Amino acid sequence: DGGITQSPKYLFRKEGQNVTLSCEQNLNHDAMYWYRQDPGQGLRLIYYSQIVNDFQKGDIAEGYSVSREKKESFPLTVTSAQKNPTAFYLCASTRTGRVGYTFGSGTRLTVV
Amino acid sequence: AQKITQTQPGMFVQEKEAVTLDCTYDTSDQSYGLFWYKQPSSGEMIFLIYQGSYDEQNATEGRYSLNFQKARKSANLVISASQLGDSAMYFCAMREGRHTGGFKTIFGAGTRLFVKA
C-alpha cells in the first residue's frame, strides 16, 4: 500500500547535536512538507518542497535544514541552532488537485 | 495575513448525536481551499473533507459535512451520528490557490472532541 514512512518514531537527542528525521513516500506525490506540532497546539510549517532539488522556508525554518534529492525522500535535519527542538514532527505530501495532505505517523523528538 | 481560528478547545457530545466544530478564517485571497483533519491519540493526521472557495455547495463525506458560509468566513465541521471512535483532535486548515499542490497550508489550534457513551 502507498503511504508515507517516517522514522524513527521516537528520537532522543543531546543538546548540541544535529539529528536527521527521515520521510519517504511511495505515492508519487510532487509536493512534500514538514510540520512541527507542540503540545496542545496546531501545526506550524517548517519547510516545503514542490519539486526535486527545490524547497522553500516555511514559518519556522530557523534551526532546521532539508534536502530533496529524490522525489520520494524529504529528510529534515534539526540542527544545534534550534533552541527548543522538543516536539512532534509530521511529514506530509500531496498531489495537485482538490485533495488534502497525506501524513506520516510522525517522529517525537526529545532533547535530553 | 492568513489566519485560522478555532475557538473551542474542547467539546463533549453524546454518542449518536450530531456535533458542530467551529472554524473561522481570514484571507485576502479570492481562491483558497479549506480542510478538516482528524488526529487520534496515535498522532497521525487524517484528511476528512475539503471545500473550495468557489464551490457553491457544501462538501459532504459520509458522516462529515462542511458548513461553508463564505460571507462570514466560517467553515464549520458537522459530524452526524457521533461514534466513540470520533474522539480525537480536529484541525481546520486553509490553503491558498485552487487545484494546486505545493502551496502551504496553515492550521488552527484544534478542538478536542470527546464522545460519551
Mean pLDDT score of chain A, rounded? 92
Major sheet details of chain B: 6 strands, mixed
Report the sheet with the most strands of chain A, covering strand number, pairing sense and barrel closure.
7 strands, mixed
> Uncertain regions of chain B: pLDDT < 50 for 5+ in a row?
none
Which range does the strand content of chain A fall in? Answer: over 45%
Which class best fits the helix and strand makeup of chain A? mainly beta
The proportion of residues forming helix of chain A, as a percent range, comes to: under 10%
Distance N terminus to C terminus of chain B?
41 Å
Rounded average pLDDT of chain B: 92
N-to-C SSE series of chain B?
A: EEEEEEEEEEEE
User: Radius of gyration of chain A over alpha carbons?
Assistant: 13 Å
Order of helices and strands of chain A: EEEEEEEEEEE
Shape of chain B: globular
**What Rg of chain B is obtained from the alpha carbons, in whole angstroms?**
14 Å
Q: Which runs of chain A of at least 5 residues are low in confidence (pLDDT < 50)?
A: none
Description:
The complex is a heterodimer of chains A (112) and B (117). Chain A contains no helices and eleven strands. Chain A has strands at residues 4-7, 10-13, 19-25, 31-37, 43-51, 54-57, 64-66, 76-78, 87-94, 102-103, 107-111. In chain A, the strands form two sheets. In chain A, strands 2, 4, 5, 6, 9, 10 and 11 form a seven-stranded mixed beta sheet that branches. Chain B is mostly beta strands. Chain B is built from no helices and twelve strands. Chain B has strands spanning 3-5, 10-14, 19-21, 24-26, 32-39, 46-52, 60-61, 64-69, 74-79, 88-96, 105-107, 111-116. In chain B, strands 2, 5, 6, 10, 11 and 12 form a six-stranded mixed beta sheet that branches. In chain B, strands 3-9-8-7 form a four-stranded antiparallel beta sheet, with no helix packed on it. Chain A binds chain B through residues 29-31, 33, 35, 40-45, 48, 50, 56, 58, 88, 90, 92, 94-106, 108, and chain B through 4, 33, 35, 37, 42-48, 50, 52, 91, 93, 99-102, 104-110.
